[in-house]
């Protein structure tokens, strides 16, 4: 029986629930190890004028380092070289690292930190997208994706709505904060154990900071206690700080950010502002859509361009729109550089079109489900995206139909309408939203992976890939793939920690492509090994006297047994085969490689194929609002998603469930609040509200759509790490649906994202006290243009 398709437990499940799993800070202190602490900028924007490092005199403090102590380059960046490890001139955000303390005890570091004085001449800061636009403060030029003639289509459209949607950021809130341990070795070598999604980027940044060649740096990532994109680029900063201390002192160095510091100085999901116009006919057919996307990139570029690009590539989501113009630009502010987050801009782009479609339905007095279904991509002429990629293996229409029937949508809609007409205290809302999420990294060269598979003479197998395990189950899936490919039992396969010694030039584990890339690379190595072993086994199992000449095509390897199909009684164990192969000097190790085919997007023209395939899904959310307090309860969610033939259905359902709840949190309770000086006020679990078990809908139906026809994906499975998060938008849309039920006739209810209790209450109050034709909510100012 093949292992692919089975519900095998996560390989770290027992360790996680018993506390035996080892994370970076669980490693015991090394002899002579130093602890590293950051001292940051006292202002959000200014010029550094002086540093009083009296901390050097504190007992237990071994070294104090500034930018002047960096032996290599202080500037780096994953796309644009515009970041500094330690500020030395301009200060760009509150808490920006200026100085590193290296001490022998935490008490010494705390005492020393209180003595450091950083002097700065303040400059005017920029904290919002609006302020950045007013100051013409951008990180790069505007990009565009367009199809058809939007201007002409709007001019002839029977109806037009325009407005703007404010979308908030989100804290990653991984359980393991940013952490790294650096150990110096012979010949200037450094070994870095880093909590990172991109070991090769850490290797490169550490080498550049320390003035060493890449081959002097080894980066190991055993596992992460969560990543969600927050460790795709920004883990490199803290690894480089530990490496700098180790390089300068010759002693091991450890840095582990406390929760408050981690939240205060690391990047978040990008806040967006979307200005939009949508044109449509009496039936709700969308004729034109124009969206201008503005994101808050923070103080440096990081991955903001690629995140904006993916937001633009998902701005039509699951809907065919003949005339489209999508423009996007990244604003520069004096906040920590915002970075990758699960969905990577896709959620913001999808929220924009789902919001607009909801307003089309409200304007026409129709159910939004019907408008979405009417405009959905199909398999005929309406199956080409605005950037020119054909939507193949399109399961969106049957997903819509099946979900509507399975969740009794129409009956529930009728019941909710009756409830809202009679309840003086509460409002209920119901909404369906969809997702069509592109799977591949949008930078073509990142769509590659390598793997090393070694077979030992006892018949066990060791696998190393460039993929990193952050709880998503990548290692478990790769083990299943390798066990099937080599014909061994699952327990004989072990995954080793990701290590740049074994896997060079790795791509980040991101974009939901970790299993696709690294699983395919491991499979390539296994195919080469299996070909050698079957050819060798054919000779061993041949029986010329019985007329059985060597025939590799008849050799079977399965469940640790090897036999010739023509004579199954004459079998040998896998261990016996590999031992015999070793004695005959046949290689039992192989390196595999995979490059995703057919990805060729041209960002200058806005045309091409950025994705190998799409993961599709839909969700229906039902909510209940308290009219007097704004309190929100998510009472039911029905989710249906196409992930092809899952490699591990149990793990995949876990990812789907967790992803949805994380998306629900972004859309409802997770709000970033900043003070007047740029300080993050919501910097701890007491002030930042992620979903807890009480926020999970009491009725939560997660179902997989049967699709055996996903031919281009690995083992016919589809990636599911990010797409479910975008379905959390259904909860926000349901809140807006409930508010629409309370809106005065002829008005559109509008709502910023996230729909916190405060935002809901302000919206309800605005409707109650407004005599205007249109309701203008605090964070979501808009105007409506209607052509009759």
Tally of DSSP helical segments: 19
The stretches of 5 or more residues where confidence is low (pLDDT under 50) are: 769-788
* Percent in helix: 25-40%
What integer is the average pLDDT?
Answer: 96
Task: Give a quick set of tags describing it.
788 residues, alpha+beta, Aldehyde Oxidoreductase, domain 3, Aldehyde Oxidoreductase, domain 4, 3 domains, 8-stranded mixed beta sheet, 5-stranded mixed beta sheet, 24% strand, disordered C terminus
List the helices and strands and how they pair.
Layout: H1 13-18, E1 34-40, E2 46-52, E3 61-65, E4 75-76, E5 83-84, E6 90-91, E7 97-103, H2 106-115, E8 117-122, H3 129-134, E9 143-147, H4 150-156, E10 159-167, E11 179-184, E12 190-194, H5 199-210, E13 217-221, H6 235-249, E14 253-256, H7 259-265, E15 272-280, E16 286-296, H8 304-313, E17 323-331, H9 346-364, H10 368-375, H11 396-406, H12 409-422, E18 426-439, E19 448-455, E20 461-465, H13 474-486, E21 493-495, E22 498-499, H14 514-541, E23 555-558, E24 561-564, E25 567-573, H15 574-583, E26 589-595, E27 613-626, E28 632-642, H16 649-668, E29 699-704, H17 723-726, H18 729-742, H19 757-769
Parallel strand pairs: 1-14, 12-13, 16-17, 20-21, 28-29
Antiparallel strand pairs: 1-7, 2-6, 2-8, 3-7, 4-5, 9-17, 10-15, 11-12, 11-14, 13-22, 15-16, 18-27, 19-20, 19-26, 23-24, 24-25, 27-28
Helix pairs in contact: 5-6, 8-9, 9-10, 9-18, 13-14, 16-18
